[in-house]
Design goal:
By secondary structure, this protein is of the alpha/beta class. Helices cover 41% and strands 12% of the residues. The protein is built from nine helices and six strands. A six-stranded parallel beta sheet has the order 3-2-1-4-5-6, sandwiched between helices. Helix 6 links the parallel strand 2 and strand 3. The longest helix is centred in the first third of the chain and has 18 residues. InterPro entries: 2-HAD, HAD-like_sf, HAD-SF_hydro_IA, HAD_sf, PGP-like_dom2, S-2-haloacid_dehalogenase. Its EC number is 3.8.1.3. Belongs to the HAD-like hydrolase superfamily. S-2-haloalkanoic acid dehalogenase family. This is Haloacetate dehalogenase H-2.
Length: 230
């Protein structure tokens, strides 16, 4: 690392910590093709950014269901109410990647402050997907974009996290599987760690900051961050 080591690690949730591939059986059942999962997720991210750029907002869960319906219309398949309810339940019960708990344990034991920042709205019943996945106790705070009514990678979202934690943005490292998420964090003054989950890689564009750290998973991130904190 050429930048100062962070004191706060800000984790993205969906795909970074929680495995969206667990939704594949639902896409297999609806579309007869589990690969449509990636089409849906890419469109979901694109339309979340389109809403933010146009000054409009709906919560990520509602948008996810709408994009699923849109993709179904494109593929000329029917999506019923039962499908939508089952899909929503799947989104709320995503399992953690197998490496996550061990990696977070190491980072917490080294003294890093751990928080999350997700596009997903706060749960109505207080039980977030991280709670269901058994990860919530690792995190000091779970931030949602919902109060700001805009989606990542809007730089304001990352700035608000740092301000609420009482630290400068430069003390924070955003950890995500998506380069677009890291670009927003770096624009706000954070450093960035890319986890190369399957289907994700760094974006090699001249003039665009590269991730500070590139790691295979959370334990690898812990190994690549220098020193032991106290």
């Amino acid at each position: 690392m050429t930048e100062p080591e962070p004191s706060v690690l800000v984790f993205d949730v969906n795909e970074t910590l929680l495995d969206i591939e667990s939704l594949q059986p639902r896409f297999e059942r609806i579309f007869d093709d589990p690969r449509v999962l990636r089409e849906w997720f890419g469109q979901l991210v694109m339309y979340s950014m389109a809403l933010t750029l146009s000054g409009r907002y709906t919560d990520f869960a509602t948008l996810g269901r709408a994009v699923l319906q849109m993709i179904a219309d494109v593929h000329r398949v029917d999506v019923g109410d039962d499908d939508l309810r089952d899909f929503t339940a799947g989104m709320q019960t995503l399992p953690a990647h197998p490496d996550v708990a061990d990696g977070l344990t190491t980072l917490r034991d080294r003294g890093y402050r751990l928080v999350t920042l997700t596009n997903s709205p706060p749960p109505a019943d207080g039980r977030s997907p991280l709670h269901t996945a058994g990860l919530s106790d690792f995190f000091e705070r779970q931030f949602s974009v919902d109060p700001q009514r805009r989606f990542k990678p809007s730089p304001q979202l990352y700035t608000v996290v740092a301000e609420d934690l009482g630290v400068p943005a430069s003390a924070c490292m955003m950890v995500a599987a998506h380069p677009w998420d890291l670009i927003g964090a770096q624009a706000a003054g954070m450093s960035a760690a890319l986890l190369t989950r399957p289907g994700n890689a760094a974006l090699p564009v001249p003039g665009i900051p590269a991730p500070t750290v590139v790691a295979d998973d959370v334990p690898d991130l812990a190994r690549r961050l220098s020193g032991t904190r106290s």
